[in-house]
Every structure is written in structure tokens, then in C-alpha cells.
Amino acid sequence: xxxxxxxxxxxxxxxxxxxxxxxxxxxxxxxxxxxxxxxxxxxxxxxxxxxxxxxxxxxxxxxxxxxxxxxxxxxxxxxxxxxxxxxxxxxxxxxxxxxxxxxxxxxxxxx
Amino acid sequence: xxxxxxxxxxxxxxxxxxxxxxxxxxxxxxxxxxxxxxxxxxxxxxxxxxxxxxxxxxxxxxxxxxxxxxxxxxxxxxxxxxxxxxxxxxxxxxxxxxxxxxxxxxxxxxxxxxxxxxxx
Lengths: 111, 120
Known about the structure:
heterodimer, A: mainly beta, six-stranded mixed beta sheet, three-stranded antiparallel beta sheet, 9 strands, B: six-stranded mixed beta sheet, four-stranded antiparallel beta sheet, 47% strand
């Protein structure tokens, strides 16, 4: 049981816009930044978004993030086949004296 | 280019010990926090531990506290994870990841991981 809650799966067709939610609490998402990681099949995770909505260099602007209260979301517009991957949200948690909590991950399928 | 290369994984019996290493290059190692994150087969990501750049501050997940010790040798640009009293549930691919100059931030990039299997 993950501290952050994500839907286990999501899907969309090429060109569509999909969103993935991440729900937490006041001690994690509610008081800290949210990070999103993308894990392509058989590879190591990669930072996709930091500080709620900032894109590292090289991440397309098709990926965007938002946060409101104790929830966050990742949006992918203009869906492409290469976006098929597992997506994880994460945040530091103040209630656990320096802990990082991850969501359970969302497997995105491009139909 | 930042590179992180984990090593030290393998098969170990329950109750045994293992030390993982992560050789870093391409950045000023001592300035950055470093972390270990693991992924059990077919499962999601689980944060394990984080250490500050100086090594003076460490954080552990409850599931490993008291059994695992994170450390670093800034003269060798290497991060370590000493794992004792290993259990079957510690079986996972262990990734090391670079943080930032502030300990409580994101992980980027990640290494390719080293596999730890705890089994009799």
C-alpha cells in the first residue's frame, strides 16, 4: 500500500491528452514539491518533472504537471507511442522525519 | 555527463549481508545528496535511503532502518549501502540516484541498478 495513490493504469490513443492523478496528504504533497518519474520498459526511472511542474532539459513540453492541495497530476498531450511507460509520483513526507514516498505507479498504454 | 554505476548485487541467504557500491562521475560528488531506491520484481519504486553531500545527514525508510547503512567516500566518488540481516522482501533491483545540493529534492539521474536476491 503506497502512501501516494495513483491509478494503476491509464490509456489513450496517439494524439490524445491523458492525465494521471496522484493523491497524498498534508504531510507530503500538501507541504512539499511533487516529482514525476517515467520508467520505460526495461530501463531505469528518469526524472520527468520536478518542483510540481518544472521540466528538466530534454523533456518535451507535451509533459506538464500541476498541484492543488494534497493532489497532483501529470498531463501528457499529443500522446505518442514512445510515451508508453510506467509513471510514478513522489514527494518528501514531513511526518516521517525525512522520508520520500512514492505512488504505486501508473502503467500508461498507448492504444 | 553524469554517470552512476552500481555494483555488488548478487544472491545471498536470508540473514546474510551485502554491500552495494555506486561509482559516480561527471559531477562534483561531494556537493550532492545521493540516494538508494529499490524496485522488487514486477513492483513499484520504494525509496530506501538518502545521504547528504558531506555524509553528515542520513535518512532511512522504516523497512530498512537498523539493518541498512548508507555511507559515502567523497575521495573515491563512491556511494555505499551496507545491507545486514537481509530478508526475502529485500529482493529487488537497487538503483542509486543523484540528488541536488539540497537533500530533500529530486533524484536525477539514476543508475542502471544492481540486483539483490535474498533466497536460501
